[in-house]
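Ops channel
N.P.: pipeline sanity check, posting one input/output pair.
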């Protein structure tokens, strides 16, 4: 049965924005699974995600401390509709990322990561798909703030869509 996913990271609420964009909250409310690749900044946002998401797979980032590090792992793993998922905040430099991540996550089909605020969608030679949803609150040098949606269906990730959002 198809499972709808929302992928986000680097939310930085309330430092970069007072709240998430309404479009992202609507997507979270509608999704079967929400994935957050770290840099929440405030545990209150984690509480809100836990209240609203049907299922949350999440990690802490380099800007997360205290209760966020106590409640969230550095690496999270889940199997979703036959897809072996791993989530981590940082993957290091873009050069060699695919090979480095394939070696670190050999039994993984999909790796969701954050940190750079730059959307990323590549596949390693091993078949590992790497996705970074960007940031919904801090676009840095990107044209817009972003998040991703996708569908997990029978071991296949399909309909991967990058959504630009107004802040």
């Amino acid at each position: 049965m198809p499972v709808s996913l929302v992928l986000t990271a680097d939310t930085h609420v309330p430092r970069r924005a007072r709240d998430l964009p309404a479009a992202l909250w609507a997507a979270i409310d509608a999704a079967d699974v929400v994935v957050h690749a770290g840099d929440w900044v405030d545990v209150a946002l984690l509480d809100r995600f836990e209240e609203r998401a049907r299922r949350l797979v999440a990690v802490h980032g380099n800007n997360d401390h205290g209760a966020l590090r106590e409640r969230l792992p550095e690496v999270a793993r889940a199997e979703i509709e036959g897809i072996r998922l791993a989530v981590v905040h940082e993957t290091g430099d873009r050069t060699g990322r695919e090979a480095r991540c394939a070696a670190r996550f050999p039994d993984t089909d999909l790796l969701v990561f954050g940190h750079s605020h730059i959307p990323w969608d590549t596949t390693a030679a091993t078949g590992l798909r790497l996705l970074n949803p960007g940031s919904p609150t801090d676009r840095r040098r990107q044209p817009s703030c972003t998040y991703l949606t996708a569908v997990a269906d029978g071991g296949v990730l399909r309909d991967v869509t990058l959504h630009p959002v107004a802040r």
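N.P.: looks fine end to end. The chain has one domain: 3-165.
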